[in-house]
């Protein structure tokens, strides 16, 4: 399966939906996904190798909607209402803080010499990606990532893409500023990368 990078112009938010019945098919549930992460070179005497990244399953589907899992439910965030980039950024920050406070475990992997790491065999759901140890790299913004994402042109299972590629937003450690929300965006070649897209839409009456 080819990898997918979802890009939208800055200030433009793209939302993809699939029907309740499509998401809940047994075939879709059984298909595993992956998240490939590339840490871009930063310069400034930093290194993108041997950076520890943690992946936590933050949400799953229930009755045709996304719901937070386990101890993260206390965040009070509705994953189905993240309709703008700003809401998505704030949700990622809140979930990250909750996961850190409660010391929620996840999958931890280290980037290779080129700044690449891949999380495989992932169940359907919403994942929180965050830095566990930046080592000699920059600060990294937490991000919410959906597996799978919808692509109406896809010939794969029900038009769903399971192999996701992420280029996390990063900024110099010395340049970090308290309350700077711009640090929570993800960029690639001047474009904002929206890696979490709400996929659930309530079935229409009579649909």
TrEMBL record:
Domain of life where this protein originates: Bacteria
Gene3D superfamilies recorded: Immunoglobulins
Entry protein name: Gram-positive pilin subunit D1 N-terminal domain-containing protein
Species of origin: Thomasclavelia ramosa
């Amino acid at each position: 399966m080819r990898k997918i990078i979802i890009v939208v112009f800055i200030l433009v938010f793209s939302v993809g939906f699939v029907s309740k019945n499509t998401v809940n098919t047994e075939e879709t549930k059984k298909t595993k996904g992956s998240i490939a992460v590339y840490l871009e070179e930063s310069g400034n005497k930093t290194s993108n190798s041997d950076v520890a990244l943690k992946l936590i399953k933050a949400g799953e589907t229930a009755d045709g909607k996304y719901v937070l899992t386990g101890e993260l439910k206390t965040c009070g965030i509705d994953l189905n209402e993240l309709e703008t980039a700003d809401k998505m950024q704030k949700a990622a920050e809140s979930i990250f803080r909750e996961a850190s406070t409660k010391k929620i475990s996840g999958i931890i992997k280290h980037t290779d010499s080129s700044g690449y790491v891949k999380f495989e065999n992932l169940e359907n759901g919403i994942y929180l990606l965050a830095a566990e140890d930046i080592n000699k790299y920059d600060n990294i913004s937490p991000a919410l990532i959906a597996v799978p994402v919808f692509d109406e042109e896809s010939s794969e299972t029900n038009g769903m893409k399971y192999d996701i590629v992420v280029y996390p937003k990063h900024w110099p450690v010395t340049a970090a500023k308290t309350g700077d929300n711009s640090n929570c965006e993800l960029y690639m070649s001047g474009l904002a990368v929206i890696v979490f897209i709400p996929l659930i839409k309530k079935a229409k009456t009579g649909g």
